[in-house]
Task: inverse folding
């Protein structure tokens, strides 16, 4: 007994080593279940293992992100550049499509109205003070443009040439308050004096008090006084009224075209 007491520590170490060997031998083979001590150990250490695992994953992802950051920045810049280029191409495509449609309309109009000769032109700017009351086109005397030529779209009347230079011309549109010309109601055949209004959205007309003009009637140019060619569509009657003390019917006429959206135009040669 005395010997065991003297060598108790060594004996305990030997027993623990043998126990570990037994555990190793047991766990090294495939088993369906773990031992109770193993279960206790695993239950105790699993939360710590989970935290360590998640921390290592976070550190790894952070490291990968830092390493890839220059590449991601360059890639993002490249994608933004490609997106901008695609948007520009799409805008150009839409513009070309619209211009093509406008040109086809004008071509069809010239074929249907072959009694005239035409000069095609594009609007390049508007007057900074008068807006769309006065626009500039890219054709001038070099292309045969002359003052007072009628300017139209396939949908109707735009205005007349007011000033001509070698390569450009100024067009006074029908919405300007100084623009005055004669029109006629297609339905009633009544004559109408037409002028632009200050709001530049509608035209104002004056007709005989006995005129049989009705709301919705189409108004065209009369061809009188030689301001515009005959039978060019001007617009539609939106309102008719007679002010007290006046002997004329006052008409509000909606232009057949939106002046602020014109791009391609035709000039009728004289």
Result:
């Amino acid at each position: 007994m005395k010997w065991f007491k003297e060598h108790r520590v060594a004996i305990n170490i030997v027993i623990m080593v043998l126990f570990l060997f037994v555990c190793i031998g047991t766990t090294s083979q495939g088993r369906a279940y773990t031992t109770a001590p193993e279960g206790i150990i695993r239950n105790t250490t699993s939360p710590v293992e989970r935290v360590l695992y998640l921390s290592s994953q976070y550190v790894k992802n952070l490291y990968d992100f830092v390493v890839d950051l220059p590449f991601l920045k360059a890639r993002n810049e490249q994608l933004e550049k490609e997106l901008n280029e695609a948007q520009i191409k799409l805008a150009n495509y839409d513009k070309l499509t619209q211009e093509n449609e406008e040109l086809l309309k004008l071509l069809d109009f010239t074929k249907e109205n072959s009694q005239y000769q035409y000069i095609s032109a594009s609007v390049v700017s508007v007057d900074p003070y008068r807006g769309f009351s006065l626009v500039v086109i890219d054709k001038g005397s070099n292309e045969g443009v002359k003052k007072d030529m009628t300017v139209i779209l396939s949908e109707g009347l735009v205005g007349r040439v007011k000033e001509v230079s070698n390569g450009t011309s100024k067009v006074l549109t029908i919405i300007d308050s100084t623009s005055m010309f004669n029109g006629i109601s297609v339905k009633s055949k009544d004559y109408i004096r037409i002028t632009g209004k200050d709001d530049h959205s509608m035209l104002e007309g004056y007709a005989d008090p006995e005129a049989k003009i009705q709301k919705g009637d189409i108004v065209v140019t009369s061809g009188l006084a030689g301001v515009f060619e005959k039978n060019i569509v001007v617009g539609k009657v939106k309102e008719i009224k007679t002010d007290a003390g006046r002997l004329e019917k006052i008409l509000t006429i909606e232009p057949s075209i939106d002046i602020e959206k014109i791009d391609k135009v035709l000039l009728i040669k004289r």
Remarks:
- The CA atoms of residues 240 and 251 lie 5 Å apart.
